[in-house]
Design brief:
The chain is α/β, with parallel strands linked by helices. The chain is built from twelve helices and 20 strands. Helix 2 packs across helix 3, helix 5 packs across helix 6 and helix 10 packs across helix 11. The longest helix is centred in the N-terminal third of the chain and has 22 residues. Bound molecules: 5'-O-[hydroxy(phenylacetyl)phosphoryl]adenosine. The site of 5'-O-[hydroxy(phenylacetyl)phosphoryl]adenosine has 20 residues, from helix 6, strand 7, strand 8 and strand 12.
C-alpha cells in the first residue's frame, strides 16, 4: 500500500528531472534573496546560471552545523516571523543549541513524508500508536504525532518517562505500535519484566518504529526475539525537519523521499562523490524547505545509497542503516572503530543483554577501552569461573572481529544506566 503512489513509484528519470527543477528554483531564489547563500555562492564563484543539471549541485559550497550555531537563533531563516508556525531546538549537548523553524508548508511536507513512511510499514487507521519520543523542543514526538494522525492511526502521545504508567496504558488501550528510541524500548522491556508483563501474552504490540540514535541489526534481532514484535528503522535530523524516513516492509534500507531530499554520499577524507553502494558521509539538500533552507548540509552521518531496486515497488532512493557519525569514530591505539561495530559484535552473543557502556581513557600515550556489559538474568551466576570464562570469550570476540583489545566488565541485569531519550553509551575521557 502506498500513501502517494504517483511520487513514490515515479520513474527514476522523472524523479531526477523533478529534483533538478526544484533545486534550480531554490538556488535562484536563495541567490536573489538570502544573504547567507548569496555570500556563500559568490564566495565559491557559482551563479544560479551555472546550475544546468542535477550533478551541478556539486558546484555549491557545503553548509555545516556550525553555520546554524553561528547564526543562532534565527539569522538564517528565509521568511519573516509572521510565516513561522513552529520552532524546535536541539539540546545543545554537543555545543551551542541550534533552532529550526517551520512554515505551514514545511509542516505539511514533513507530515506527508511521515505518512508515506508509516504507510510503508503498514501503520494506518487500524493502529493505535504510542508515541514515546520526547514531545517538546525535540522533533521526535510532534513529528511522529502528526504523521500518525495523517494516516488515521489513533495516537497515544505519551512522550518519554513514567514508564510503568506507559506500560499500563499500552495494555489498557490495546496499543499495536510504538515509536521511540531503541534504548527506551529496551528500558520498557526491563520495566515490563519487573511488573510481570510479557509483551507477547499481555499486550497487542506488533510494531516498533525505532530511531534517533544508531542501532544495529543484531540489536534488532535481540529486541524482536525478546518482545515478539517487528522493529523498523526511522531516520531524520532536525535540520531536515525531524524524523522522516523509514524502511518499508522489506526492511532493506531506508526510503528517502526524493522529491523532498536530495542525498549525496561523499568520501569523508577526499570529499569525492562516491558510487552507489559505497559507504561515506551524507550530504543533504532539502528541496522544499521554506523557513530554513538546507543546501549541501554535511550531516556527518555515515551511510550509502543502495544500488538495487526495492521489491516494494517504490523507486525512491534508499540509504543503508546509519552506522555512526563521521565524528563518532573512535581511534583506539590507531585502530578505527565505530561504536556500532562494537554493539554489533556484543549483541550477537546470546549471553549478553541489551545494555552496554564504552569508556575510553588515555594513560600516557596509550589508549584503554573498557566495556561494561549487562548479562542476561538466566546467565548471571555467582560461580566466578563461569563469569571469568564468559568475560574472556567476549574479549576474544572483540579482538577477533574488531582487532581491539578491550577490558570487559560484566554487570548484573539492571546495573547500567537506562535512557529515555537518546542513549549515551560512549564516554571518551580523552577528549574531556
Ligand atoms: O533525532 C530526529 C529523529 C527523531 C529521528 C525520532 C528518528 C526518530 P536530531 O536530534 O537532530 O534529530 O538528531 C539527528 O540522530 O544526525 C543521526 O546521527 C542520529 N539518528 C537519527 N535517526 C537515526 C537512525 C532526530 N535511525 C541525529 N539511526 C542524526 C542512526 C540516527 N542514527
Amino acid at each position: 500500500m502506498y500513501w502517494n503512489e504517483k511520487i513514490e513509484c515515479m520513474p527514476v528519470e522523472d524523479l531526477k528531472k523533478l529534483q533538478y527543477q526544484s533545486f534550480k528554483a531554490l538556488v535562484s531564489s536563495l541567490y536573489g534573496f538570502n544573504k547567507f547563500y548569496h555570500d556563500r555562492m559568490k564566495g565559491a564563484g557559482v551563479l544560479p546560471d551555472d546550475i544546468r543539471s542535477l550533478e551541478d549541485v556539486q558546484k555549491l559550497p557545503f553548509m555545516y552545523k556550525e553555520d546554524l550555531r553561528n547564526n543562532y537563533p534565527t539569522k538564517m531563516f528565509n521568511v519573516p516571523n509572521t510565516e513561522i508556525v513552529r520552532f524546535h531546538a536541539s539540546s545543545g549537548t554537543s555545543g551551542k543549541p541550534t533552532v529550526v523553524g517551520y512554515t505551514k508548508n514545511d509542516l505539511a511536507y514533513w507530515t506527508e513524508a511521515l505518512a508515506r513512511s508509516l504507510t510503508s510499514i503498514g501503520i494506518g487507521s487500524d493502529d493505535i500508536l504510542q508515541v514515546s519520543y520526547g514531545y517538546g523542543l525535540f522533533t521526535g514526538g510532534l513529528g511522529l504525532h502528526y504523521g500518525a494522525e495523517k494516516v488515521g492511526a489513533s495516537v497515544v502521545p505519551s512522550s518519554t518517562g513514567n514508564t510503568e504508567r506507559q506500560l499500563e496504558l499500552m495494555q489498557d488501550l490495546g496499543v499495536t505500535a510504538i515509536a521511540c528510541t531503541p534504548s527506551y524500548l529496551i528500558h520498557m522491556n526491563t520495566v515490563a519484566a519487573k511488573m510481570g508483563i510479557d509483551f507477547r501474552r499481555d499486550t497487542c504490540l506488533k510494531k516498533a518504529v525505532l530511531g534517533a540514535e544508531p542501532w544495529t541489526e543484531s540489536m534488532r534481532s535481540k529486541v524482536e526475539g525478546s518482545m515478539g514484535i517487528r522493529a523498523y528503522d526511522i531516520y531524520g535530523t532536525s535540520e531536515q525537519a525531524g524524523p522522516m524516513f523509514t524502511e518499508c516492509e522489506e526492511r532493506n534500507g531506508i526510503h528517502i523521499a526524493g522529491d523532498i531530499m536530495y542525498t549525496e554520499i561523499l568520501d569523508p577524507e577526499t570529499g569525492e562523490l562516491l558510487e552507489n553502494g559505497e559507504r561515506g558521509e551524507m550530504v543533504v539538500t532539502m528541496l522544499k524547505k521554506e523557513a530554513l533552507p538546507i543546501i549541501r548540509f554535511k550531516i556527518k552521518d555515515i551511510s550509502s545509497i543502495l544500488k538495487d531496486e526495492c521489491p516494494c515497488g517504490r523507486t525512491s532512493p534508499r540509504i543503508s542503516r546509519i552506522t555512526g557519525r563521521a565524528d563518532d569514530m573512535l581511534i583506539i591505539r590507531g585502530i578505527n572503530v565505530f561504536p556500532s561495530q562494537i554493539e554489533y559484535t556484543l549483541m550477537r552473543m546470546p549471553e549478553i543483554g541489551e545494555q552496554y557502556m564504552i569508556e575510553v581513557t588515555r594513560d600516557g600515550a596509550l589508549d584503554h577501552m573498557k566495556i561494561q556489559v549487562e548479562i542476561r538474568p538466566e546467565v548471571f551466576s555467582d560461580k566466578v569461573s563461569d563469569m571469568v570464562s564468559l568475560r574472556t570469550r567476549i574479549e576474544s570476540e572483540l579482538k577477533k572481529y574488531l582487532d581491539i583489545a578491550a577490558v570487559v566488565e560484566l554487570r548484573a541485569p539492571g546495573e547500567l544506566p537506562r535512557f529515555e531519550g537518546k542513549a549515551k553509551r560512549v564516554i571518551d575521557k580523552r577528549v574531556m
